[in-house]
Design brief:
four-stranded antiparallel beta sheet, 2 domains, Jelly Rolls, elongated
């Protein structure tokens, strides 16, 4: 079976056109993008996690304040994480990371009957450490109720409170009404 010259010529032109189209860089990029494209739909969701939501970076620090003086007044507690081995040692932000706190929950604790209902108390987070100029972060909350614990006071920080590497964090109060603290956030590399 012999093909005519005109059929071979048309076939050659078509083949050259196909090769030119496939070898064109924009076409190659479009084909590659189509092969690796991921579509995020309700029926086919794609899991994405930002650094602050990865389990290895999340951190929760808690402490239950103890009143130092039996008459009321100065109290402090040491923040503990699930990996803290010694309750008598304050939490220190790792040297190569920053701590980003996105939420603070504080509950008044009237365990020695020093909290007066309706009174506003100041709770502080003292920050110090190697290379850190000491400062304090403060919250005002009111003790409400007649039971031991007041309501949970929730403070949200969507963009985060940033604590530098080597920061030592110690919750304190000097008003007589102790409190329990819970700080939630994540660690991030500098």
């Amino acid at each position: 079976m012999r093909l005519s010259k005109s059929v071979l010529a048309v076939g050659g032109v078509v083949l050259a056109g196909i090769l030119f189209t496939v070898m064109n860089p924009t076409t190659v990029h479009a084909l590659a993008a189509a092969l690796v494209q991921v579509t995020n739909t309700a029926s086919n969701p794609v899991v994405t996690e930002s650094v602050n939501h990865q389990a290895a970076q999340m951190i929760e620090l808690t402490c239950n304040m103890t009143v130092v003086e039996p008459r009321g007044g100065n109290g402090q507690c040491f923040l503990l994480s699930p990996t803290t081995a010694n309750a008598g040692v304050p939490y220190v932000v790792p040297a190569n990371q920053s701590l980003i706190i996105t939420a603070v929950d504080i509950v008044s604790d009237n365990f020695r009957n020093f909290c007066v209902p309706g009174t506003v108390y100041g709770e502080n987070l003292q920050v110090a450490g190697t290379g850190i100029v000491p400062y304090s972060r403060s919250w005002d909350l009111s003790f409400i109720g007649t039971s031991r614990f007041g309501p949970t006071n929730h403070f949200s920080y969507p963009s985060g409170l940033v604590f530098a590497p080597n920061s030592t964090l110690i919750p304190e109060e000097d008003s007589g009404c102790a409190a329990n603290f819970e700080l939630t956030g994540y660690l991030t590399n500098n």
